[in-house]
C-alpha cells in the first residue's frame, strides 16, 4: 500500500453522469490531495495530510512542486498499426485534390494497405511501439488499435498479432479491433457483399481462435460499404460473439442509426449526422465518438458534439490517429480545438477522454479517481487544471502512473 502526493489539485471526475452535458461546477476537486493505492487499485482519495496521518506507517511517494492530478486518458479510436506514410495525400488535399482523386492516383487507404502488407511483423511492431510511447507521454494509458490495412487473412492476422505482441512490451492497456471491413481490397475479385462474407467465414474465426480481438468495426460509406450489407455483416459478427463498433456518418448521414439498431458499442466520426439521427443516437447506449483529428486533417466540419450532449448522448473524444486523414495523434490538442468550435466545457472534454471513452471500449474500471478504480492517473505541472486545455496540448503531462506505478 502506498500514498502518492501531495497534488495541488486532484480532479477526480467522480459522481458525474455517463451521458449528457456537464458544467465545470460539477467537478470534484480535492486541494492538497493524495491518492492511496494498493495492488494497482485506488483505495482512497482525499487530503494528503489527513491520509498521511490516518495511515502513519505507509510508504509515501512524494510529488514535488505544484502538480494537478487527473485520471489517465483513453484514446478509444486509433489506427496506429500501419506501414508507410501518406504525407503526399495531405499535400494533394491542401492543393485542392479530392479524396477520390487522390485514391485514384494511388494514394488513400489502399496505399497504406500496400505498405502494411509489405512490412514485416518486426517492422510493424517497432513503429507501433513508438506510437504507443508517444501516446503514453501525452497521458494516454488505454489505447484502442484497429487492423484494416491488411484486408486479407494473412495480413489482417499479421496486424492483430503485432498488436497482441505489443501488449507484452508496454504497460498501457491495448484494445485490438478488427477493421477488415475498412474497404473492399482492389485485389478481391468478388463484390463488396462477398468480401464481407469472406471476413465472416475466413478472418473472424481465426481471430477468435487466436484470441486476437473481441471487437469488430466497419466503415459504412459510399466509398466503402453500403448500409444494408453493413447491417447484415454487423449482425453476423455479433452472432459470432464480437462486440461491434461502426465508422458512421463521416461524409453521409444514416449509418449512425444502423449502429444504434444493431447495438454497436460506439458510432465514431458523425461529422455528417443530421438532427433527427442525433436524437436517435442520444437516446441509446451507443457512444457517440467525435474524431476531431479527421476534421482537421480533411478540412471537414466537426462532429456536432454540442448537440449530442444537449440531447443527452454519451460523447467520447478520440484521436483517429491514422496515416491518411488524421496524422496528428495529439488527443489533447484535438479535444481542445473541438471544445473551442463546439463550445464544450472543460468537464465535458475531460469526461470525453476518460470514463466516457473507456465506456466506449467496455472498460468501466478506469477514468475516475475513486475507490476500486484502476490506478491510472497523470499529472501536469500547473496550479490550475484549466491550464491543460487552455494551452491546447503544449502543456505536457509531467508524470504518468499505470497501476499506481510511475512509468
Automatic annotation (TrEMBL):
UniProt keyword Iron, yes or no: yes
InterPro entries: Amidohydro-rel, HutI, Metal-dep_hydrolase_composite, Metal_Hydrolase
Swiss-Prot/TrEMBL keywords: Histidine metabolism, Hydrolase, Iron, Metal-binding, Zinc
Metabolic or biological pathway: Amino-acid degradation
EC numbers, comma separated: 3.5.2.7
Keyword Metal-binding: yes
Enzyme class per UniProt: hydrolase
SUPFAM superfamilies: Composite domain of metallo-dependent hydrolases, Metallo-dependent hydrolases
Pfam entry (one): Amidohydro_1
Annotated Amidohydrolase-related domain residues: 70-404
NCBIfam families, A to Z: hutI
Protein name according to UniProt: Imidazolonepropionase
Species name: Kaistella solincola
